Amino acid sequence: MNSIFDAIKALGPARILATGMVLATVIAFFVVLTTRLTSPNMVLLYGELNQNDAGQITAKLESMGMPYELKGDGSVIHVPSDQVLKLRMAMATQGLPTGGSVGYELFDRSDSLGTTSFVQNINHLRALEGEMARTIATIDKVAAARVHLVLPRRELFSRERRKASASIILRVRGNRILDTNQVTAIQALVAAAVAGLKPGMVSIVDDRGNLLSRQSGAADASGAGTIGKHRLSYETRVKEALESMIERSAGLGSVRVEVSAELNFDRITTNSELYDPDGQVARSTQSVEQSETSADSSSSGTVSVSTNLPEGDDGTTGSGNTSNKSGRVEETINYEISKTIRTQIHESGTVKRLSVAVLVDGTYATEGEGDEAKRVYQPRSAEELKQIEELVTSSVGFDEARGDTVKVINMRFARLEDDPDFVAEEGFALTKGDIFRLAEVGSLALIGILVIFLVLRPLISRVLTPGQVVDTAGQPVPLDEEGQPIITDQVKVAGQLPAALTSQLSNPEVIKAVESGNLGDAEAQQLVQAAVARLQGGSATDQIDMAEIEGRVTDNSTRKLIEMVENHPEEAVAIMRTWMYQEV
Length: 584
What we know:
The protein is built from 15 helices and 14 strands.
């Protein structure tokens, strides 16, 4: 323990301060690392919340004692990943988030007893709009929705009944776009939920100001766009059908189809009347028959009663009578000729011309085994291409009179696996958040290892490892297996020198010379030689005349010691100064 404190004292104030700062930094680093590793992984609970919903949700989380994080101006809430599903169910039971609109929970209030019918009607409209907005927001591509309903009331004694209508504004997630089918589905959904509302009376606009659907009867200012969409829809439908059909035989990903259709968007109405003269039928017949008879007499008789009787005498006396008869027969027959009236309406969107191009990949065979195996391309036969062409012409309704064309070509597809530099990588089933967290933990662990090996280990080794053993010449002394120095003759002599010099340094002149630093190389050499001489036969307590020392040393080990002093005078003086201040 004392050696540790002595080593710390020997470092000095500057080194102690630097060491303390390093230790404090290391401790702070490990505290941050431990806190980071033990803290829960925060994931998204709700995003894009309005201030009202965010406030209610955070208040609920605080009452539950659940940690959370707010991001994005308070519109995004993060919670521990292992609690996200549980919290979403808990918030759903509370009707959160509301999406900025109220629903039928508006009628759960107990103060509705004294409200007027007008307020009740307004609340019913608000609740209906809110529920519809929530329902629309459940669609994958829709982030939020606002619904405005117009439900006119029929006034008393009014014959005119106005139609219900609706306006919807949608906020789409990211850069997504709602297709026509989804827009139509929203129209049908709203119309089915509101009494008297027809899908054609629902207008939908997105948050970018694009009109997705308009009410029926509105002017179409983008007719060209509608025509282009209809053409693209037709081409896409034919293309997908052909690819799906051919891939069943050629293989998945081995077919590419392109369709170009020229459509006729003219709407033509034709009226025609056809008469058949051979198909006449008597419609009416009129017959008139007329006859006339007249008589003339030249003599006159007596007018009496007898002459007027049927069988009486006419009283004529002469024979000059004449009579005339005439007749007429007329027949009128009216015939109706067979007539056919035909009205033909040619709707727009008919196909005027169709061009289909089919690109088919060949087949591949594997040659070789093991590492030498490789894929070899083989083109398809002409007979197979002919069969594909016949299949395409039959499925698209090929009409040569219209100028339709179908081309089937076999070419090799460029694939990534055919590239020699391509290396298929197998990905891990990790999310983006998991990858970032693993990278963060790995970097922190790497920094910790570097701190341990580059900072802590040298520092601890310096404090705990004892200093290296050196001899009187400053040379390292070899150690045995137990860490003890190996004592040689030279080391023995060097080890006995301090005791011998102790008695010699009692000379006041020598002490004064050593303390003042004026002890030269010659004097130091003589002093060491005198100490060696005392070791060989003299008394360690006797004073030595330094002038009589030279020439008395004969031992081999002492000669080597004298040579070291001569070669390293400055180190010898430093060693002697250290000996002077050591406690005996």
